[in-house]
Amino acid sequence: MTRKRRPPACWLTDMDGVLVHEGNALPGAAEFLARLIERERRFLVLTNNSIFTPRDLAARLVRSGLNVPEELIWTSALATADFLSSQLPNGSAFVIGEAGLTTALHEIGYTLTDTNPDYVVLGETRTYSFTAITRAIRLVQAGARFIATNPDVTSPSPEGPLPATGSIAAMITKATGAEPYFVGKPNPMMFRSAMNRIDAHAESTVMIGDRMDTDVVAGIEAGLETILVLTGSTQASDIARYPYRPSRVLDSIADVVALI
Q1: Is residue 87 part of a domain?
Q2: CATH number of the domain where residue 230 is located
Q3: CA-atom Rg of the chain in angstroms
Q4: Is 145 found in the same domain as 91?
Q5: Which of 33, 54, 90, 209 could join 70 via S-S bond, C-beta 3.0 to 4.6 A?
Q6: Closest CA to 97 of 124, 77, 115, 118
Q7: Does the pLDDT of residue 2 top 70, yes or no?
Q8: Domain identity same for 110 and 173
Q9: Which residues lie closer than 8 Å to 240 by C-beta, 6 or more apart?
Q10: Where are the alpha helices (DSSP H) in 177-216?
């Protein structure tokens, strides 16, 4: 039986490829955010990037011409911290990552340690250390549970793709035989934790993304209406390759404004 949807009251939107591209606001992004505020719609901007804190990301968006308060930004690092807090409050973790991840874990009362931690938590960083990866492998082998912020194997840069969390996770898995639990997209848990933050309900929430294999599939699995915009990773010619479909396919975020 198909669930009856209600008019959208809450909106989740990916950041890169939907609102911005390489530090520049995409056409319609400012108008989209302004319409959400004008209509008093609850919303969050989501990203799998675990490097930056919400405050850092808010500042970067301002430089691109978009004003998003830090409390309306939800990262895979925050989702990971939310998950760990629900699983083992005030636990301990050995962390490979940057300020976005370490700050999120500190804020939930986690102790960061390389001595007998409850978890090894892997996030994205621009300076992966062979020493830290070796330590992570040995801790996982000793019984620490393995968590990763997201499965993305590469991240973009002006020079070309960079190895990201998924690539380093594969290295640790190959050495230990332990598969990580990925919290970020395409795990719908990231959406559910975001929805809890703004008191949203699946039947009246829309997810906007630029990737079929993360944004759209996770939105479908979370029971959300989904909108694919064609300003990022997935192109119109790619859609037919997937066994699932978004609720709508639009050229850009500019076309979403009229739907709010």
Answers
A1: yes
A2: 3.40.50.1000
A3: 18
A4: yes
A5: 54
A6: 124
A7: no
A8: yes
A9: none
A10: 189-197
pLDDT at 161: 80
Residue after which a domain boundary falls, among 166, 182, 198: 182
Tell me the residue range of the domain where 102 lies. 79-182
- Using a cut of 0.90, tell me whether the model's pTM lies above it: yes
- The set of long-range contacts for 86-94, using a CB threshold of 8 Å and a minimum separation of 24, is 88/118, 88/119, 91/117, 91/118, 91/119, 92/116, 92/117, 92/118, 92/119, 93/117, 93/118, 93/119, 93/120, 93/121, 93/147, 94/119, 94/120, 94/121, 94/135, 94/136, 94/139, 94/144
In this model, does residue 205 exceed pLDDT 80? yes
Parallel, antiparallel, or unpaired: how do β-strands 20-21 and 24-25 relate?
A: antiparallel
16 catalytic? Reply is yes
Is 255 annotated in the active site?
no
Q: How far apart are alpha carbons 173 and 160 in whole angstroms?
A: 25
